[in-house]
Amino acid sequence: MNREPLGFLLGAAGRKVAKMYTAALADDVVSPSQLYVLRQLWREDGLALVDLRERAQLDATSTTWIADQLEKAGLVERKRNDPDRRIVRLWLTNSGRALEPDLEMRLASWDAGIDAMLQQHHTPADLEAFRSVLSTIVATLPEGDDLWSSLSTSWDEALERLRRSILDEPEHAVEGEPEP
């Protein structure tokens, strides 16, 4: 059976959903990425940037850039108020907090639209299992470099075995020794 790789399907689905959110937010003050960060702060205001990055599944550069944009828009402010002055926390402003009811309602509407479309093709149990699988992927897949270093090691080993099988080399040939 010739199936698309799961990563490709997830990427394509993610891009489609991102385009939908981008179009829906086109006339708003926030982008989809900024909305995702705001939602983390609506749940837990005053997060340290490093904790926000982890919860939002973003890299450090993206988190800082989004925080800069939200700060320029007057939706958050940075404060160093911990005993460890190196820790920067983001706090919602009144303007940032005021966006929550409308954006959460619209987000729920968009989610209901996605669910309705998917229910035309899948059972509610299928959709619940799908959400569970996606949650597992988010929770258990290593981040960036951690993921690629572990995968590249196994890929490098597999490629080396393949190269040896093609060249018909013994598995443990010592470089410089003549072949029998």
Structure description:
This protein has 180 residues and is mainly alpha-helical. The protein contains 8 helices and 3 strands; from the N terminus they run ααβααββαααα. It has helices at residues 6-24, 32-43, 49-56, 60-72, 94-98, 100-119, 124-140, 144-167; strands at 47-48, 76-79, 89-92. Strands 1-3-2 form a 3-stranded antiparallel sheet. Helix 3 (49-56) packs across helix 4 (60-72). It is globular, with a radius of gyration of 23 Å. It starts with 5 loop residues before the first helix and ends in a 13-residue tail after the last helix. The model has no long low-confidence stretch (mean pLDDT 85).
Q: What best-fitting shape do the alpha-carbon axes yield?
A: globular
**Lateral arrangement of strands in the main beta sheet:** 1-3-2
Percent of residues in beta strands? 5-15%
By helix and strand content, what is the structural category? Answer: mainly alpha
Number of helices: 8
Q: What is the second-level CATH architecture of the largest domain?
A: Orthogonal Bundle
**Rounded Rg:** 23 Å
DSSP summary, beta strand count = 3
Tell me the name of the CATH homologous superfamily of the largest domain. Answer: Winged helix-like DNA-binding domain superfamily/Winged helix DNA-binding domain
CATH C-level name of the largest domain:
Mainly Alpha
Write down the domain tally: 2
Low-confidence stretches: none
Query: The biggest beta sheet, please?
Result: 3 strands, antiparallel
